Amino acid sequence: MQSAFDQYEREMWAGRADAYGRTFARLCAHLVPRLLDAADVTAGLHVLDVGTGTGSVAAAAAARGARVTAVDADAQMVDAARRAVPGAAVRQATLPRLPFGDGTFDAVTGNFVVNHVGDAGTALAEMRRVLRPGGRLAVTI
Question: pLDDT tens digits for 18-44?
């Protein structure tokens, strides 16, 4: 069940992928290399980017040779990320329920996504659930 905060966030960002790409995405992109370093993203790893937005983290992970899966709550953001990272598996999904099995990914990233969910602890636990034992979870906020 979505909290009032989650509903507010969905409504606030709905249909704003172009505006986000011109503004906040550029600001948030500055931390992408450090985020990927913290997650130890290298060639061949299976990486999940949660809250991908227009796909800047997904694109940078793919450029490192990672196999990338990315999710976002907004359909327009998903479309933008698919265009930005054609080799990635990008789909619509929202925290705190990710549509993946336990231990699916070698690394999980979230660039400025935890601050956009109503229950950060539950969101982080879900991101950890889909991470393989010994994998790396890295987030920015």
Answer: 655 565 656 677 688 999 999 999 999
Rounded CA gap, 86 and 10, in Å? 25
96 close to 117: Cβ distance less than 8 angstroms: yes
User: Which range of residues forms the domain containing residue 35?
Assistant: 4-140
Give the number of domains in the chain: 1
Cα separations (Å) of 26 from 21, 39, 75? 7, 21, 20
Give 141's pLDDT tier (boundaries 50, 70, 90): confident
Q: What CATH number does the domain containing 110 carry?
A: 3.40.50.150
At 1 the pLDDT is: 59
Q: What region, left, alpha or beta, does residue 68 occupy, with left being phi > 0 and alpha being psi -120 to 50 degrees?
A: beta
Alpha helices in 14-74 (DSSP H): 17-22, 24-28, 32-38, 56-63
